[in-house]
Structure formats: structure tokens, C-alpha cells
């Protein structure tokens, strides 16, 4: 299907690829990964013939039909449904020729064209386009609106629908999930699983890559290495290779020590069985990921909040919206230090509106909003990059936030976000989207907020930077509300999920796998659409019993850990080891030994309960 033979590519003075060779066979679904700037989009441009290699050869079959997503859409007056249908170029050509043949009363030509339309599924094309648009979030009414009436993000969805309408042999997708909500991401991955052609997809969403790809092409240090399997398999194989390199061992040790601290904190604080079960599955993947990204250029942590008020925020029967019409109503939400909440729901349901209310950018229409006096919010909005000063440098941006900071302290801080050397003094106007996103994030967290509001923070971030963000969020001491289509980030950093849908914001009792199942069943379920309806009644009863057991075990763990902490504190008293207090010491030592054995037993039961829940 596609062969690169000894391809070398330069962009200006910079070499992106040197003697890269690989072959992609028909039907493969290849994830193209690598840091920003390694040449992923340039590789697509070579496949499309828009770029020629400096040496070597790119080979494609003759008469191949390639589909790709246009990056811009003019403000057309064309109806959205018709715009999507335009992706099937042969259909449109047959329709145009049929109109001419009918005007000429050319019966033979008319019959031939109708035969061709039947062969390519032309009579069902409008239905197919409508289903595509519906899956991408367009209502029946929206499908009849003009392209010009949609915002930039929705026009990108239209471009995606148009590419999917093409009956292609090779489909090229560059960050297709960037403008989608989770609902549309789940739909797209199912569509791609059933795609018959060859797929090449650039994405920084590892869950999406695992769901749709069969192979992974990694661009790194001017090389292109093809791995079998999805992203997780690539991480494992890369981690094995890197573990043999002495240069990264010290970094691995630091990252794995950090991971162990996270696991210990999780075990001590886990309160919800479903989230706990999901987190256990993440631990092994995070460990593998830490090793695979051990040579990352990014390493940063959030400076600790100065104060952690409790509660931070309370919303009581709040209605939110624009004008007089509420988008959400009856919202009751409390945020405490350490809370990590992921907001789920389709675009337009009100996730960003809720975050704007909490940030203070939007007033409540009714109800009560109580903010702690010491509440300090760090707000990363969807369009945060637009707030940057294009003519200012990273150093100047930080100077404006903290005029008293030393130049070296600012350089050290920016270095964690990979702004080094003279780069910290350069105007950011020519910076890439990824570099601007990193700077925007650095500015949001610099003032040491105790509540982070993150609305799609990973757009433009590559996988290494996402890994660094994930590690930093895991050890953040404050609270967090996260909206993201990056399921890995949500799963690895959030302890609770809230669903924003149909004018309500309510806790979701489940993990992202449950949410995907709920979405798939929602269209076939009438009346009560709660996620519980997705599960079989007998399985529900069994799960309830297991969750009760797990909850009791968590309570026992908490009490046992608290008593052990008391004993450890008392045993730190030097006078306890005097001869006169030997009996007291022996009693405490014996109790400590028994409690530790009991804690091991409780943890073993708890883990067994988690495994049983997972098996259901």
C-alpha cells in the first residue's frame, strides 16, 4: 500500500528524517506518534504529494483514492449535509453526468449511470451522510444549516465527516479528536474499527490509538521505527529497549519512585469502588509509560498551594446559562481539597459553562454560590492560547505575573516546560501551537492555585508533555475539575466523574468504560437512561454487594492505618525505650505487629474484591 525507501527530508536547515524506510500493508491501521516537530505532518504531506523527499522514494499504488481532512473551511452557504456528501467525489460526478444525460434524453447513458450509482451505494448516500453527521454531534436541524453558520470547531467536524464520506483506500487523519467531545470520540473509534481501507492517524490520545490502530510508527531523532500493536504495546517495547540504556536509568528510578508514592496515596484515599477498580488498571500502564517516556524533555511539578480552605466551593441549586434561559439547573456541587473531578458530556451540554461559573467569569441565574475567602483558581480555558501576547517572550510573560522574581528562578521554572537557552527571550508569535500551549499552562499554574479548572488542556500537547502533565497532576495537593477528550488523562488523574447532560450535572457512578457502554445503549433505552440500566439486573445486585464489602474494607483500612500512625508517633518518643517503660514498649510493639498483619490481610481482601468487580 505504502512504502518509504531511504527517505531523507529537510525543512530549511533542519533535518526531519534521514534514510527512513518502512512499509505499510493494505488494511493496516497505523498510529503515527512522536514529539511535536519530528515530522509527522510533513510525512503526511509527502504521502499526499505536497512535499518531495530530498532523497529516497515514496511509493503508492496507481489509482489509489486518498481521503484526508482539510484544515480550513471557508464560510460557505452550502448546507452541512450536502457539504458532507461532497466527500464522495464519484457520487457527485455520477449525479452531474446523470443530470446532463437526462437533459439529452440519452437513455443508454442514463441506465449505465443508474447501474453505477447502485453499485457505489449512491441511493443510500444521504442516509449514510446523515448518520455520519449524527455520530459527530450534528442534530437533524443542524444538518440543514449552512457551513458558514458554524464555529471553527464545528467546521472541523464537518471536514472530518466529508473525509469519512469518501470511499477511500487510504485515510489520513491528523489529530481527529482535537475538536470532538468524548461522545463523538467513542463514535469515531467505532467507525474506524469498521473501516475497510488503510488508516494513518496522527494522535496524542493514547486511548484512541489503542482502540483503533494495529501498528505504531514512531518518529524520533530523524528515524522512523514501525512497531506491531497499538500505543500501549509500543510503550512496552520502547520501555524494554530504553531500560537497557544506562543513560536513562537514573531518570526511571526517580519516576518510578514518584509513581510508588502516588500508588500509596491512592490506596490510602480510595473511597469509590468503581473508580478504585479503574485506577488499579491504570497503575501498570502508568508504570510502563513512565519508563517509555523516561527521556522526555519535560519535567515539572506544580508549586504547592499556599492555603487549602475546606470547603473550597459550594453550589446549591444553581442555574447557569446565558440571557434568561438556563443551560444547567439544580446544580449541587461541593469541592474539597484533594477532589479530582472529571466532567463528562457532549459539546454544548454545559461543561465549559459550569467551569466559567466556578471561575467567576459567569454569574449564576439563580441559586447560591459560596466561595472560600482563600480560594485561588488556576483556569485553563479552551481558548487559552488567545490570551497570550504574541510579541512578548516567555520571560516577559512570567515577569508580568511576578515582577519580583529573579531571572534565574524564572529560567528554572520555564526549563521544566522545555523553554531553555535563548528561547526564553524570543517573542512567541512564531512558536508552534504546542509551545504556546505549554507556556499558557505554565502561566496558569505559576501563581500556586489551590483549585485547577482545566478545559481541554491537552490540545496541541504531544505525548511526552501529556505524560509530564499527568505526573504533575497526580501529586497536585489542591482540587481539580477537568474537561478533556484524552481518556488516559481523565482515568489517571480523576477520582470522581460528573455527567453534564440534558440540563443537569450529576455524579456518574462508574468509570469511562461504563460511560462508553452507557452511550452505546442510550439510543436503545427509553425512560430512565441512568447508567445502571446498561447493566444486567443480576450483575447489578452482585456488584452492589461487592461494593458494600469493598467499602467496609476501605473503612477498616482507614481505621487500621490511623491506629498504626498513632503507634508510630508514640514510638518516636525516646523515653519509651527506658527500662521502666519496657512493658509499655512491648505492648505497643505487639499491637503494631498485629495491626500490620491485619492491614496486609485487609488489603489482600480489598484487592480480591477489586478483581471480582473487574471480572463483572
Automatic annotation (TrEMBL):
Entry-linked Gene3D superfamilies: 1.10.287.1490, P-loop containing nucleotide triphosphate hydrolases (3.40.50.300)
Origin: domain of life: Bacteria
SUPFAM superfamilies tied to this protein: P-loop containing nucleoside triphosphate hydrolases
Keywords: ATP-binding, Coiled coil, Nucleotide-binding, Repeat
Keyword Iron-sulfur: no
Protein family: Belongs to the ABC transporter superfamily. ABCF family. YheS subfamily.
Protein name per Swiss-Prot or TrEMBL: Probable ATP-binding protein YheS
Gene source species: Hydrocarboniphaga daqingensis
Lineage, uppermost ranks: Bacteria, Pseudomonadati, Pseudomonadota, Gammaproteobacteria, Nevskiales
